[in-house]
Amino acid sequence: MKFYKPTSAGRRDGSVVEYKKKLTTTKSEPHKALVAGKRSTGGRNSQGRTTNHYRGGGNKRTYRMVDFKYNKLGVPAKVEAIEYDPNRNAFIALIVYRDGERRYVIAPQGLGKGDEVVTAADAKPKIGNRLPLTAIPVGAFVYNIEIKPGKGAQLVRSAGSYAEVVAQDGAYTLIKMPSTEIRKIIGHSWASIGAVSNEEYRLVDLGKAGRARHKGLRPKNRGTARNAVDHPHGGGEGRSPRGHRRSRTKQGRPTGKGQKTRSPKKYSNGSIVSRRKPGRLMAIGGR
Known about the structure:
- This protein has a single domain, classed as CATH 2.40.50.140.
- Helices cover 6% and strands 22% of the residues.
- The protein is built from 3 helices and 17 strands.
- The chain is globular and about 70 Å long.
């Protein structure tokens, strides 16, 4: 981490990840065959209506086509470079297979230029390799986990995160998620060994509003500061209480203060063995 000296109000308390020490490539351009254009939605849907608030502006981003399917089985690949991706908080690795094909994948911690990785059922459980969950030993850290076999990596993809294999139970594997939730996943699903790179990302302090605007984040205002027509907490003369027992979102759903917001009919409810620890206990008993 690099912490700025308070030479101005905007520099005070600001910090940034030292990318030059983390990345192995000196070029600023990504591999041309693996990029595509990306338009910013500004939080609007196809009708132009705001569906996701507090988004807009920001620097332009070129999309890197990251491989989450890992469908080249048994073909070793060599890491050519560890690169920055503006569309996610983890680093990405440019790998080249023995047949000459190149792909981008999410880079784990400890993976470096020149290392070899492989996706195979009989691969060794070392950092960067990808195996079925049934072949991964108990206690190993994993990321890029499939929910259904062949669907591609969906779980544990953000910077610094990892899950732990806690048990093998017949056709299922029990995984302890970063949230401390334990869930069972079909053992034929695949996962990568290791923890996601850029673990210092959670320590970054933007330091000023301008850096948030560069990231495409617009200012947030409190619900109590709005008019009654704009938010359930709004309205009233001067400073007024919210008028509801429980805090609500703009759409009227419960939020915050320890209230449960998970849908009781969510498709994955049946796969949860142990719910996550709430509040402070989660921070103590988590990763």
